[in-house]
Write a structure and sequence with these properties.
Radius of gyration of chain A: 21 Å
Order of helices and strands of chain A: HHHHHEEHHH
Distance between the termini of chain A: 41 Å
CATH class of one domain in chain A: Mainly Alpha
Number of helices of chain A: 8
Oligomer: homodimer
Strand content of chain A: 5-15%
Structural class of chain A: mainly alpha
Largest sheet of chain A: 2 strands, antiparallel
Chain lengths: 185, 185
DNA sequence: AAATTTACGTCAGTCATATTGACTTAATTC
DNA sequence: GAATTAAGTCAATATGACTGACGTAAATTT
């Protein structure tokens, strides 16, 4: 399952660095780059999204379906336009994925009460159950990662993640996430 | 640049939740799900990878090119096989991207000293400069996120990310990341 | 020395997810 | 009544991934 397979990693990677250097100071500005954090983020995020992928494959769904399912389940009655804004994809990209989810009776479309142009999106009972299942998988991984850390670490991580987001997007994302925790500085 | 555009988010998302509930306890198991962390991870990671994407677009490169460039730059002399293992993609997927990077004189292939079957990978001077540029973009975002947090937060985040990775993959990834910090528990 | 394995590349075909730009329909708002 | 908005659709395209098979050269094993 966790096919790591770095094999001859160490032996192969000649750590001497054969790269040509024009002057001897060329290295000075790279010494403090946060390579470890960058790479850990890459690997951690890949594992994090990998759990749901295995379940989704049984439905012939991919990551795109997960994202749509997640945000519809979390925002019942969301407009197509707003979903596009959150996911930052085009109508066409969403269209195909959404159609498959509707066909599979995972997501349901209802006409807007006040505005009949709208097709408000809801998860069906099945869809909600699937969304919860996938979230629980991610919960397990998060809890396993947090359990070893000192108290309050989850707060630090929330603030870190929030501050990784561009300041002008934070307010919107906070509204969306509507955390039960205090993220205000 | 940061085209957020959640617009009528709140007004559209009727927070009442019209989903049908068979029994009144159906909600009880979902109450503690870490939706906030899950969504913050999604948005933070998207912003994190978004910075380099803008620069790479000027070269007609995508995220796949970035990943290859990054790990080659960090592991000069790496074998194709090992790179495949890290990225978890197929030879064919790597092939196209790698060819473009070699054609653009970003990456260089050299025959192995001891094993002439190998095509060891190195960044060129240009390639290394690009890799450093992209890393500095990510550094800026990371520093901006960390600066507001209490001392030692970076340690917590490193441990968190490491523990998000499956236990049996951690050793290999640690070797690869070869952090200057103490991640051992 | 011969057989096997490994490293790498390539061919052909496919799939998933995304893009752009134009256009239509229906409904709402100005 | 005109303009705008919400949603869907058409056609064409791009990127990044896949499978499975095959070939070649070099190294290793027997």
């Amino acid at each position: 399952m966790t096919d790591v397979n770095f094999k001859s990693m160490i032996s192969s990677a000649a750590q001497d660095g054969n790269r040509l250097m024009k002057d001897s100071t060329a290295q000075s500005d790279e010494i403090d780059l946060p390579y470890d954090l960058i790479e850990l983020l890459f690997f951690a995020y890949r594992e994090f999204t990998g759990d749901p992928d295995d379940v989704l494959a049984e439905y012939d769904f991919g990551r795109a379906h997960h994202r749509v399912l997640h945000f519809v389940d979390r925002n019942p009655g969301i407009m197509v336009t707003d979903l596009l804004g959150i996911l930052r994809i085009t109508k066409q990209s969403l269209g195909r994925v959404l159609k498959q989810l509707v066909d599979a009776e995972i997501i349901e479309q209802r006409e807007g009460h006040h505005d009949r142009r709208q097709r408000l999106l809801y998860t069906t009972e099945r869809g909600h159950a699937l969304a919860v299942d996938l979230t629980k998988l991610q919960q397990k991984r998060l809890e396993r990662a947090l359990i070893e850390l000192p108290d309050g670490s989850d707060e630090i991580i929330r603030k870190f993640l929030l501050q990784m987001i561009d300041p002008d997007a934070r307010a919107d994302i906070l509204k969306l996430v509507r955390s039960a925790y205090d993220l205000s500085d």
